[in-house]
Amino acid sequence: MRVVVQRVSEASVTIENVIKSKIGIGFVVLLGITSEDTEEDIEWLTSKICGLRVFGDAEGLMNESILDKNGEILLISQFTLFASTRKGNRPSFIKAAKPDQAIPLYEKFIGELSKKLQRQVQTGEFGADMKVALVNDGPVTISIDSKNKE
Q: Where is this motif: Gly-cisPro motif, important for rejection of L-amino acids (predicted)?
């Protein structure tokens, strides 16, 4: 699994001209899933996301987590995080998990992240054409891959 975490002051996702979800201070998390991913990847990544100390403390240093800030999360499925551009100019998405495998893992990710965040994670819609709007605060953008734990 691979995530791109963006610290935001606000964000929303719109599907077919209707705002599906909206958050204030927190994270937009783009999630890519491969056929090799397991529940162990979910456990590790959700813990890592909730523990990231990228919010300012009283001195303005990045020392506080999303839990410390009582922040929100907008989670968006993003199979393109596993695009391969090794050959030619048209990306290949062969490493991305197919929907029958990815959807159950995506739903477990939502549940586990909501549990650790102690509030419901907001989402897009798996497989939909989404318009994601955000104000990246910092900017702070961090990429994490569960296969690169060391």
A: 138-139
Q: Which of 64, 62, 49 is nearest to 115 (CA)?
A: 49
pLDDT digits (tens, 9 = 90+) for 47-105: 999 999 999 999 999 999 999 999 999 999 999 999 888 888 999 898 999 999 999 99
Q: Which residues contact 107 (CB under 8 A, 6 or more apart)?
A: none
Q: Which domains does the chain have, with CATH numbers?
A: 2-145 (3.50.80.10)
Mean residue pLDDT across the chain: 96
Structure tokens belonging to residue 125:
């819609």
Torsion of CA 125, 67, 41, 148, to 10 degrees: 110
Assign 149 a pLDDT band (cuts: 50, 70, 90): confident
Which residue out of 78, 82, 122, 123 is catalytically annotated? 78
Does 78 participate in catalysis according to the annotation? yes
| Structure-token pair, residue 88 | 């030619």
Check if 126 is active-site. no
Single out the catalytic residue among 27, 46, 55, 79: 79
| pLDDT band of 130, cuts 50, 70, 90 | very high
